[in-house]
């Protein structure tokens, strides 16, 4: 046993990608097990590894953790990415929840029926530019610091960076009206651990394609 954390999910982004981002940003190496069949998934349930019969599953520090938010909260706390006190933690949690709402739309987009894709893409663009990104633009501008909370790198910064890149894949000019977020993206991209994660060959997964969608439907239905 290598002692590395072990991630069990499909070979694609999904709900595990934010966990990969957070571990990578913290400089933590991990190994992955990919589900490719319904039988593998059913065996995890039968063996009692999935408390609520859902993945992601992350094996870390002797625990078999499920539920994305709980996993990420543990990782953020373990690697000092969750603020210095309760007030900072509350702000970080608020920002993470906001980003998660936007990411949920992006997560579900590949599963949109063909006739709904254009409408759903427009919804992502509208929500990003009118509801979510203006919040973070204002936060960064008001306190004039590099990071969202306490001028220290946190879980919220990692999630915002993931969301920015995910939206840009679909709406390349989405940051055109957000100069603070443009600066934020550049600074985050040059942080050593994140820069490494953005390089080819890293554990970061590509945008979901038809094969990924097909595998998801096969494994979970």
UniProtKB/TrEMBL annotation:
GO MF annotation: an example: glutathione transferase activity
Pfam families (alphabetical): GST_C_3, GST_N
InterPro entries in UniProt: Glutathione-S-Trfase_C-like (IPR010987), Glutathione-S-Trfase_C_sf (IPR036282), Glutathione_S-Trfase (IPR040079), Glutathione_S-Trfase_N (IPR004045), GST_alpha (IPR003080), GST_C (IPR004046), GST_superfamily (IPR050213), Thioredoxin-like_sf (IPR036249)
Gene: Gsta3_1
Protein name: glutathione transferase
Keywords recorded for this protein, A-Z: Transferase
An annotated GO BP: glutathione metabolic process
GST N-terminal domain segment(s): 3-83
EC number, UniProt record: 2.5.1.18
SUPFAM superfamilies: GST C-terminal domain-like, Thioredoxin-like
Domain GST C-terminal: from-to ranges: 85-209
Family (UniProt): Belongs to the GST superfamily. Alpha family.
